[in-house]
Protein backbone atom coordinates (compact mmCIF):
# COMPACT_ATOMS: atom_id res chain seq x y z
CA UNK A 1 0.00 0.00 0.00
CA UNK A 2 1.44 3.43 -0.90
CA UNK A 3 1.96 6.21 1.61
CA UNK A 4 -1.21 8.20 2.30
CA UNK A 5 -1.27 11.29 -0.01
CA UNK A 6 -1.69 13.73 2.87
CA UNK A 7 1.26 12.17 4.69
CA UNK A 8 3.23 12.10 1.44
CA UNK A 9 3.02 15.89 1.14
CA UNK A 10 4.48 16.37 4.62
CA UNK A 11 7.11 13.71 4.02
CA UNK A 12 8.24 15.31 0.76
CA UNK A 13 8.65 18.69 2.46
CA UNK A 14 10.75 17.18 5.25
CA UNK A 15 12.93 15.09 2.95
CA UNK A 16 13.47 18.06 0.63
CA UNK A 17 14.49 20.34 3.50
CA UNK A 18 16.80 17.67 4.90
CA UNK A 19 18.60 17.21 1.57
CA UNK A 20 20.46 20.49 2.12
CA UNK A 21 21.77 19.39 5.53
CA UNK A 22 23.84 16.45 4.29
CA UNK A 23 23.00 14.67 7.55
CA UNK A 24 24.90 17.23 9.61
CA UNK A 25 22.77 17.80 12.70
CA UNK A 26 22.81 20.05 15.71
CA UNK A 27 20.25 20.34 18.46
CA UNK A 28 19.39 23.99 17.86
CA UNK A 29 18.70 23.52 14.15
CA UNK A 30 16.74 20.34 14.77
CA UNK A 31 14.58 22.03 17.40
CA UNK A 32 13.88 25.00 15.15
CA UNK A 33 12.91 22.79 12.22
CA UNK A 34 10.68 20.60 14.39
CA UNK A 35 8.95 23.66 15.81
CA UNK A 36 8.21 24.91 12.29
CA UNK A 37 6.82 21.54 11.22
CA UNK A 38 4.60 20.84 14.23
CA UNK A 39 3.73 24.47 14.75
CA UNK A 40 1.87 24.32 11.45
CA UNK A 41 -0.47 21.56 12.65
CA UNK A 42 -1.38 22.85 16.11
CA UNK A 43 -5.09 23.55 16.73
CA UNK A 44 -6.24 27.14 16.39
CA UNK A 45 -8.38 26.65 19.49
CA UNK A 46 -8.26 23.96 22.17
CA UNK A 47 -11.37 21.96 22.96
CA UNK A 48 -10.14 21.38 26.52
CA UNK A 49 -9.42 23.74 29.39
CA UNK A 50 -5.69 24.37 29.70
CA UNK A 51 -3.73 24.84 32.91
CA UNK A 52 0.04 25.29 33.19
CA UNK A 53 1.57 23.47 36.14
CA UNK A 54 4.87 22.62 37.77
CA UNK A 55 5.15 18.85 38.18
CA UNK A 56 8.05 17.44 40.19
CA UNK A 57 10.15 20.46 39.28
CA UNK A 58 9.26 20.42 35.58
CA UNK A 59 6.77 22.46 33.57
CA UNK A 60 3.67 20.64 32.34
CA UNK A 61 0.37 21.34 30.60
CA UNK A 62 -2.84 19.91 32.06
CA UNK A 63 -5.77 19.55 29.67
CA UNK A 64 -9.25 18.93 31.07
CA UNK A 65 -12.13 17.92 28.78
CA UNK A 66 -15.55 19.49 29.24
CA UNK A 67 -17.05 16.23 30.48
CA UNK A 68 -15.94 15.48 34.05
CA UNK A 69 -13.67 12.45 34.41
CA UNK A 70 -11.60 10.74 37.08
CA UNK A 71 -9.02 9.38 34.61
CA UNK A 72 -5.59 10.82 33.82
CA UNK A 73 -3.16 10.20 30.97
CA UNK A 74 0.43 11.30 31.65
CA UNK A 75 1.85 12.09 28.21
CA UNK A 76 5.49 12.18 27.07
CA UNK A 77 6.09 13.94 23.75
CA UNK A 78 8.22 12.59 20.92
CA UNK A 79 11.35 14.04 19.39
CA UNK A 80 14.26 11.66 19.97
CA UNK A 81 14.72 12.84 23.57
CA UNK A 82 16.28 15.98 22.01
CA UNK A 83 13.47 18.04 20.45
CA UNK A 84 9.77 18.66 20.99
CA UNK A 85 7.68 20.01 23.86
CA UNK A 86 4.19 19.86 25.38
CA UNK A 87 3.36 23.06 23.47
CA UNK A 88 4.14 21.36 20.16
CA UNK A 89 2.07 18.33 21.17
CA UNK A 90 -1.22 20.12 21.82
CA UNK A 91 -2.79 18.75 18.64
CA UNK A 92 -2.54 15.16 19.89
CA UNK A 93 -2.96 15.77 23.63
CA UNK A 94 -6.09 17.90 23.19
CA UNK A 95 -7.58 15.26 20.89
CA UNK A 96 -6.66 12.42 23.26
CA UNK A 97 -8.30 14.21 26.20
CA UNK A 98 -11.54 14.57 24.21
CA UNK A 99 -11.56 11.12 22.61
CA UNK A 100 -10.30 9.35 25.73
CA UNK A 101 -12.54 11.17 28.17
CA UNK A 102 -9.58 11.84 30.44
CA UNK A 103 -7.38 14.59 31.75
CA UNK A 104 -4.00 14.74 30.00
CA UNK A 105 -0.87 15.86 31.81
CA UNK A 106 1.82 16.60 29.21
CA UNK A 107 5.32 16.79 30.71
CA UNK A 108 8.20 19.03 29.64
CA UNK A 109 10.92 16.53 30.55
CA UNK A 110 14.62 17.38 30.32
CA UNK A 111 16.17 17.02 26.86
CA UNK A 112 19.50 15.70 25.63
CA UNK A 113 22.28 16.48 24.88
CA UNK A 114 22.16 18.97 27.74
CA UNK A 115 20.55 16.35 29.96
CA UNK A 116 21.41 12.83 28.73
CA UNK A 117 19.96 9.52 29.92
CA UNK A 118 18.54 8.87 32.45
CA UNK A 119 17.30 12.46 32.95
CA UNK A 120 14.19 12.11 30.77
CA UNK A 121 13.35 8.74 32.33
CA UNK A 122 13.81 10.12 35.85
CA UNK A 123 11.51 13.05 35.04
CA UNK A 124 8.88 10.68 33.63
CA UNK A 125 8.92 8.49 36.73
CA UNK A 126 8.75 11.56 38.98
CA UNK A 127 5.76 12.94 37.05
CA UNK A 128 3.76 9.73 37.46
CA UNK A 129 4.62 9.58 41.15
CA UNK A 130 3.55 13.24 41.48
CA UNK A 131 0.22 12.43 39.82
CA UNK A 132 -0.35 9.54 42.20
CA UNK A 133 0.42 11.72 45.22
CA UNK A 134 -1.72 14.61 43.95
CA UNK A 135 -4.71 12.62 42.73
CA UNK A 136 -7.10 14.40 45.09
CA UNK A 137 -5.85 17.80 43.96
CA UNK A 138 -6.29 16.79 40.31
CA UNK A 139 -9.70 15.27 40.97
CA UNK A 140 -8.74 11.87 39.59
CA UNK A 141 -8.73 8.30 40.82
CA UNK A 142 -5.11 7.17 41.41
CA UNK A 143 -6.13 3.73 40.15
CA UNK A 144 -6.98 5.29 36.78
CA UNK A 145 -3.61 6.79 35.81
CA UNK A 146 -2.36 5.78 32.37
CA UNK A 147 0.83 6.75 30.56
CA UNK A 148 1.45 7.38 26.89
CA UNK A 149 3.76 8.92 24.36
CA UNK A 150 4.91 8.87 20.78
CA UNK A 151 8.32 7.69 19.52
CA UNK A 152 10.84 8.70 22.21
CA UNK A 153 7.84 9.49 24.38
CA UNK A 154 6.55 6.00 23.71
CA UNK A 155 9.91 4.71 24.90
CA UNK A 156 9.50 6.66 28.15
CA UNK A 157 5.91 5.47 28.60
CA UNK A 158 6.90 1.82 28.10
CA UNK A 159 9.84 2.17 30.49
CA UNK A 160 7.70 3.90 33.11
CA UNK A 161 5.14 1.11 32.78
CA UNK A 162 7.84 -1.43 33.61
CA UNK A 163 8.76 0.64 36.68
CA UNK A 164 5.22 1.05 38.04
CA UNK A 165 3.70 -2.19 36.74
CA UNK A 166 0.04 -2.76 37.54
CA UNK A 167 -0.14 0.42 39.63
CA UNK A 168 -0.94 2.03 36.26
CA UNK A 169 -4.19 1.42 34.42
CA UNK A 170 -2.97 1.47 30.82
CA UNK A 171 -0.16 2.39 28.43
CA UNK A 172 -0.62 4.04 25.04
CA UNK A 173 2.50 3.54 22.93
CA UNK A 174 2.63 5.34 19.59
CA UNK A 175 5.40 3.91 17.36
CA UNK A 176 7.61 3.43 20.44
CA UNK A 177 11.35 2.81 20.42
CA UNK A 178 11.68 -0.15 22.79
CA UNK A 179 15.10 -1.65 21.98
CA UNK A 180 17.86 0.90 21.44
CA UNK A 181 20.51 -1.78 20.87
CA UNK A 182 19.29 -3.10 17.54
CA UNK A 183 18.65 -2.12 13.95
CA UNK A 184 15.61 -4.11 12.81
CA UNK A 185 14.51 -5.13 9.32
CA UNK A 186 12.24 -2.07 9.20
CA UNK A 187 15.18 0.15 10.11
CA UNK A 188 16.92 -1.20 7.00
CA UNK A 189 13.87 -1.06 4.73
CA UNK A 190 13.07 2.54 5.66
CA UNK A 191 16.60 3.76 6.34
CA UNK A 192 16.13 6.76 4.07
CA UNK A 193 13.46 8.69 2.22
CA UNK A 194 11.02 9.16 5.08
CA UNK A 195 10.41 11.63 7.90
CA UNK A 196 12.42 9.51 10.35
CA UNK A 197 15.53 8.02 8.82
CA UNK A 198 18.44 5.95 10.07
CA UNK A 199 20.99 8.79 10.22
CA UNK A 200 18.59 10.83 12.33
CA UNK A 201 17.82 7.88 14.60
CA UNK A 202 21.50 7.22 15.18
CA UNK A 203 22.14 10.89 15.94
CA UNK A 204 19.29 11.06 18.45
CA UNK A 205 20.63 7.99 20.25
CA UNK A 206 24.12 9.48 20.35
CA UNK A 207 22.77 12.62 22.01
CA UNK A 208 20.71 10.69 24.56
CA UNK A 209 22.88 7.69 25.41
CA UNK A 210 26.46 7.14 26.52
CA UNK A 211 28.64 4.05 26.73
CA UNK A 212 26.48 0.97 27.27
CA UNK A 213 23.25 2.81 28.18
CA UNK A 214 21.33 1.16 25.32
CA UNK A 215 21.47 -2.09 27.28
CA UNK A 216 19.88 -0.51 30.34
CA UNK A 217 16.28 -1.66 30.84
CA UNK A 218 15.29 1.95 31.58
CA UNK A 219 16.39 2.85 28.01
CA UNK A 220 15.29 -0.38 26.31
CA UNK A 221 12.15 -1.79 27.98
CA UNK A 222 12.16 -4.73 25.55
CA UNK A 223 15.12 -6.03 27.59
CA UNK A 224 13.09 -6.22 30.82
CA UNK A 225 12.61 -9.61 32.42
CA UNK A 226 9.54 -11.71 31.74
CA UNK A 227 8.53 -11.25 35.36
CA UNK A 228 8.63 -7.45 35.13
CA UNK A 229 6.95 -7.27 31.72
CA UNK A 230 4.17 -9.62 32.78
CA UNK A 231 3.09 -7.01 35.36
CA UNK A 232 2.78 -4.01 33.03
CA UNK A 233 -0.68 -2.55 32.38
CA UNK A 234 -2.76 -3.23 29.25
CA UNK A 235 -1.22 -1.71 26.15
CA UNK A 236 -2.43 -0.13 22.93
CA UNK A 237 0.37 0.14 20.38
CA UNK A 238 0.12 2.28 17.24
CA UNK A 239 2.33 1.09 14.37
CA UNK A 240 3.06 2.79 11.03
CA UNK A 241 4.38 0.86 8.04
CA UNK A 242 6.79 3.47 6.63
CA UNK A 243 8.72 3.74 9.86
CA UNK A 244 12.15 2.46 10.98
CA UNK A 245 10.46 1.72 14.33
CA UNK A 246 7.71 -0.43 12.80
CA UNK A 247 9.18 -3.69 14.11
CA UNK A 248 9.69 -2.29 17.61
CA UNK A 249 5.94 -1.87 17.92
CA UNK A 250 5.06 -5.26 16.46
CA UNK A 251 7.70 -7.15 18.44
CA UNK A 252 6.86 -5.47 21.74
CA UNK A 253 3.17 -6.22 21.23
CA UNK A 254 3.99 -9.87 20.53
CA UNK A 255 6.13 -10.20 23.64
CA UNK A 256 3.52 -8.62 25.89
CA UNK A 257 0.83 -10.87 24.45
CA UNK A 258 2.99 -13.95 25.05
CA UNK A 259 3.27 -12.92 28.71
CA UNK A 260 -0.48 -12.55 29.07
CA UNK A 261 -0.64 -8.74 29.00
CA UNK A 262 -3.78 -7.47 27.20
CA UNK A 263 -2.54 -5.67 24.10
CA UNK A 264 -4.07 -4.24 20.94
CA UNK A 265 -2.10 -3.21 17.88
CA UNK A 266 -3.39 -0.43 15.64
CA UNK A 267 -1.48 -0.91 12.37
CA UNK A 268 -1.54 1.78 9.66
CA UNK A 269 -0.22 0.35 6.41
CA UNK A 270 -0.34 3.71 4.62
CA UNK A 271 1.30 5.92 7.26
CA UNK A 272 4.78 7.05 8.26
CA UNK A 273 6.50 7.82 11.53
CA UNK A 274 5.16 11.08 12.95
CA UNK A 275 1.68 10.87 11.44
CA UNK A 276 -0.08 10.69 14.81
CA UNK A 277 0.97 14.28 15.58
CA UNK A 278 -0.71 15.61 12.45
CA UNK A 279 -4.39 15.04 13.19
CA UNK A 280 -5.60 18.32 11.63
CA UNK A 281 -4.10 17.42 8.24
CA UNK A 282 -3.85 13.59 8.12
CA UNK A 283 -7.18 11.71 8.35
CA UNK A 284 -5.36 8.54 9.39
CA UNK A 285 -4.14 10.34 12.50
CA UNK A 286 -7.70 11.23 13.41
CA UNK A 287 -8.73 7.57 13.14
CA UNK A 288 -5.74 6.48 15.21
CA UNK A 289 -6.61 9.04 17.88
CA UNK A 290 -10.22 7.83 18.01
CA UNK A 291 -9.07 4.24 18.52
CA UNK A 292 -6.57 5.31 21.16
CA UNK A 293 -9.34 7.25 22.88
CA UNK A 294 -11.58 4.19 22.87
CA UNK A 295 -8.78 2.22 24.52
CA UNK A 296 -8.22 4.88 27.19
CA UNK A 297 -11.93 5.15 28.02
CA UNK A 298 -12.57 1.38 28.17
CA UNK A 299 -13.70 -0.03 31.56
CA UNK A 300 -10.88 -1.51 33.66
Q: What order do the helices and strands come in, and which of them pair?
A:
Blueprint: H1 5-19, H2 27-39, E1 49-55, E2 58-64, E3 72-76, H3 90-100, E4 103-107, H4 119-133, H5 135-138, E5 145-150, H6 152-164, E6 170-174, H7 185-189, H8 198-208, H9 226-229, E7 235-242, H10 246-258, E8 263-272, H11 283-297
Parallel strand pairs: 3-4, 3-5, 5-6, 6-7, 7-8
Antiparallel strand pairs: 1-2, 2-4
Helix pairs in contact: 3-11, 4-6
Describe this structure in words.
The chain has one domain: Rossmann fold (3-Layer(aba) Sandwich), CATH 3.40.50.1820. Helix content is 40%, strand content 18%. It has helices at residues 5-19, 27-39, 90-100, 119-133, 135-138, 152-164, 185-189, 198-208, 226-229, 246-258, 283-297; strands at residues 49-55, 58-64, 72-76, 103-107, 145-150, 170-174, 235-242, 263-272. The chain has an eight-stranded mixed sheet, with helices on both faces. It is globular.
Q: Choose one word for the global shape.
A: globular
Radius of gyration computed on alpha carbons? 17 Å
CATH superfamily caption:
Alpha/Beta hydrolase fold, catalytic domain
Count of beta strands: 8
Amino acid sequence: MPLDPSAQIINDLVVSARADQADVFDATTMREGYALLLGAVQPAELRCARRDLEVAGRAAILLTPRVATDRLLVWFHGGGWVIGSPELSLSETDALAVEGGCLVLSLDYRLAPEHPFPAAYDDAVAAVRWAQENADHLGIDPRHIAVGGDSAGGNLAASVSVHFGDALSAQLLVYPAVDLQRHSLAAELYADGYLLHRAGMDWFKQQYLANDDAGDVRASPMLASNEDLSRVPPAHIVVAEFDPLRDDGFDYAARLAELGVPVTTDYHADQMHGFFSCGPVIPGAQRATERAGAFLSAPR
